[in-house]
Amino acid sequence: MIRKHFAGFAASALALAVSAQAFAGTVTTDGADIMIKTKGGLEVGTTDKEFSFKINGRLQADADSFDGFYTQNGERADETYFRRARIEISGVAFTDWGYTFNRNFGDSSSNWDELAIHYNGWKPVQLSIGRINPTFGLEEAVSSKWITAIERSAMYDLAPWLNSHEDGEGIRLRATAGMFHGEVGGYRQSGNEDEDGQNNTSFIARGVVAPIVQDDQVLHFGLNFATREVEAGFEEEIESRLSVRGTTEDGPNGNRALFGGAALDGTDQAWGLEAAYMIGPFSVQGEYLTRNADGDAALNGNDNDLEATGYNVQLAYTLTGESRSYKLDGGKFDKIKPENKQLGAWEVFYRYDNITVDETAMLPVGEGGAVPVAGLTVDSAEAAAKTHTIGVNWYANEAVKISANYLKTSVDDVVNANGDDDGDAISLRAQYVF
Q1: Contact between 434 and 40 (Cβ < 8 Å)
Q2: Cα–Cα dist 273/288, whole Å
Q3: 336 or 169: which carries more pLDDT confidence?
Q4: CATH architecture of 56-433
Q5: How do residues 14-27 score in pLDDT, each as one tens digit?
């Protein structure tokens, strides 16, 4: 039923867009005039900016080929899938109020990614309530439309709750002033509940200072902090696709590696650092994340904490000379706009990811302690992975982006069922945004 309603809604939106092309100009009403824009989606709004409505979206079609550690038996596998098929609706009502609806139809669960109401009357502070995307880290702040690599760094797999938006609702405050941007929010988490059904809350904060923000030069620094309380016996696994999504889309042979796990009890915290510098067509950025979670002594058989660290470094260069755009509101990089409409913009990059989990890949099995996960070999109390990614992005125009990535990964003290501790992958993406 929901899909049917959206189909009708999309048809209506298309009709409006066609009519806007046929009858360019201002539509006069008995109130404020209405302006219709069709570049970058469909936007309808009053000229006094008291009301507006915008619909846009993205389609990302991916193909992956991978082998070695990326598969269970080490043999090459491949997968094609829609990474995202997303409809986004946003707007303003009565000047100070806003709303955002965001749903990914490419996801088999078809969950709402974002459902939020915003209050903008306390400028420069914005208050948001609902299902909101928390932000921890620079790459997570950047839209999936404009991240440089096809998939974000494996560093974020060390603490997936930091950027989870599907598990619960929350409240967030964010503000941008001068060279500063900051946001802090509290988010309820489904599954992390006490015996009475009370949800625990995660608190996530991010602060950015950008002393240089120009069209062709940006200097950016960021600090992130997150904390949550977990109930005794709460089981946590640290798994990673190592930046190849097809490993989980491929059910028969894909390997989403398990690097660690434990029963938790108490406080789970993470810190993050980020820095970036862009000058002309060249940019360099890096991030660091560390996590420490209190272990449950009753189930683990000891009081060892679950600890993990990760970092990434990325170099990018636009061969056609364009600079990456940057938005201080959000503390993030944005699209590259091609100057040559025929040639488009061409970008090459290299990224290095490094993750380490300091506990063995063990999960609790009751009062008797823990046992290794079936099919997984861990030789020490530390599991690690290193991934090199090189890639090229072609921004054909402001709507179409074609990407190709090659990834080479190696792991320490973890192997797949075939005994492989390295692997490689090729990832391709065709993207259209409106």
Answers
A1: yes
A2: 5
A3: 336
A4: Beta Barrel (2.40)
A5: 444 444 444 445 55
